[in-house]
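Need Reverse transcriptase domain-containing protein's 3D structure for a figure. Predict it.
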Amino acid sequence: MKCFERLVMHHIKSSLPSSLDPYQFAYRSNRSTDDAISTVLHSALTHLDKKDTYVRMLFVDFSSAFNTIIPQQLIHKLDSLGLSTSLCNWLLDFLTGRPQAVRVGSNTSSITTLNTGAPQGCVLSPLLFTLLTHDCTPEHTSNLFVKFADDTTVVGLISNNDESHYRSEVSRLASWCKHNNLSLNTDKTKEIVVDFRRTHTLHTPLSINGTAVERVSSTKFLGVHVTEDLSWSTNSASLARKANQRLYFLRKLRRAGTPTPIMTTFYRGAIESILTSCFTVWYGACTASCRRTLQRIVRAAEKIVGTSLPSLQDLYSSRLTRKALRLAGDPSHPLHSFFSLLPSGRRLRSLGARTSRLRDSPIHQAVRMLNSLPALPPIPILPTAHTLSSS
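Structure prediction for Reverse transcriptase domain-containing protein:
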C-alpha cells in the first residue's frame, strides 16, 4: 500500500500550483529546518537593526494535529488548488470509513470507524497536512508565519510599541484553527520577546482564547535552543553535553579493538552529527569560548579514534558555502533575494548591517563566505521547488 501511496503522492505533487505558501519548509525539495530557522532569525535581526523596534515570537503548539484533519474540508482545499475531481474523490475515500481497533495482549477492542484525521505512519499524511495549512498566512506585512509541518512560528515585527497588527494576527490564527478543526495547545505554546532597546516598556502578556501564553527566556525551536537575547551559549552547551555523553561509547569501541574506520564512522554518525546540528544557523554567531568547547570534543575524539577528524570550522565553511550556492540558485526560496549578483557577475551584492548581531546572522555570513572565495563558483540553477519532496 505504501508503494501505491508514493505514486499518489508524486501525482499530487505534479499537480500542485506554484502559489503554495513559500514559508512552509517541510517536505519540500531544497528546504530544511536550517532554512526555517534562518528565515525567522534574518527577519527578526533585520527588523531589530532599526531604531525603536522589538520582536515577539510565538511558537505555536497544536494538539494531535494530524488526527484532527476533516477530510471533507481538506478535499475542498485540494479542489481549490486544482487537483482533479477523481483524485479528490479517491483521497476522500482513503481518509474516511477507516476501521480501527486496539489490541492489548490477547484482548482486542471492538472496531470503531474513523472519519477524521490522517493515518499514522501514512506516506500521504504529512503532505496532506501541509496542503491543509497552505492558506494559513499572515494578513499584515509586519508579521511572518514560518511553518515546518505542524510546527508554526508567528514572528511579529513591532515598531514604535504598536502591537495591534501582531495581536490581531494571533487572534486571526486562533480563528483559523477553530475553523479548520485544529486545536491550539495554549499550555505548550510559548512566546519569546526580543527587545534590545536600552529603555523598553513592560510587555503586556499575550492571550489566546482567554488563556495567557507563557513568556519564556528560552525555548527549543526545530531542535535549536532560541533565547531572548538571540545568543547561542545555551544551544552550544546543550550540544556539548550530548556529544560528551557519546564519547563514552567511542571509548568502549576502542577498548573492544574496533578498527579505526568503524570508529570514525561511529563518530560521524553519533557525535559529529550532534555537534553540527543546524550548524549553519548558529555556529557563525556563537562565541569563541563556545567554539573552543565544542572543538575540544573533536580533539578528544581524535585521540580516541587515533586519526585526524575534520575541524568544526572547516565543516562550517564547506556547509555554509553549499547552502549559499543552493539558496542563490533557487528563485523560489524565500531567502533567494538576498543573493544578488553584481553587474560584473563575479561577486554578490553585500548586505548592509548596523549591528554586529545582523552581520553575524546566517544569511549575511553566507553572502560574505561566497564573496571571500577567490572566484565565485558557478551557481547551480535549481528546478522550481514549489512542490513537496518525498522525504
